[in-house]
Amino acid sequence: MQAPETLSLPEIQRRVRQLKESPIKEMGSYRRLIRTTKFPWPIRRMLWWYGLCVSGKQKSTNFGTYSVNSVRTMGIRMIQFLVPITSTLYYSSPGADGELNIQMAFDHRVFDALTAGRALAELEKVLNNEMVAEITKSSGR
Question: Which pLDDT value is given to residue 118?
Fold first, then answer.
């Protein structure tokens, strides 16, 4: 999803639902992934290496620069989370009090723990203020 920060929450939700419900062959990124899996292993490995390590444009276009994962919803707590991109946010299921634990794994070559901490603090501020306001507005409350 390109430029998700420019989209409203209902539009993001619509796009995610479309990705979940549409046939795989209708999604360009899935078609490209299926085509790539047909290459022999050494060629696939070379394509991944090129996309991740050589071309920043290819990396951001095909892999993105961050991900969001709900791996903790299954009761799993990750100590080390290795991903081939800059950062990953992963979260647990909301507790009875409505609190949601969010953690970040990141590449220390790109930014340090202070930057990650600031990003998480900003995320908390946005979730507790702007997101609540947008959800309240879109639900008509």
Answer: 94
Exposed / middle / buried, residue 83 (Cβ in 10 Å: 0-12, 13-18, 19+): middle
- Total tally of structural domains belonging to the chain: 2
Instruction: For residues 29 and 9, state if they share a domain.
Output: yes
**Residue 133 corresponds to which amino acid?**
A
Locate 112 and state its tokens.
Answer: 């340090």
Q: Which domain holds residue 130?
A: 65-141
**Same-domain pairing of 54 and 8:** yes
Q: How far apart are CA 91 and CA 55, in angstroms?
A: 30
Q: Which residue has the tokens 């969010």?
A: 102
Select the more confidently predicted residue: 47 or 82: 47
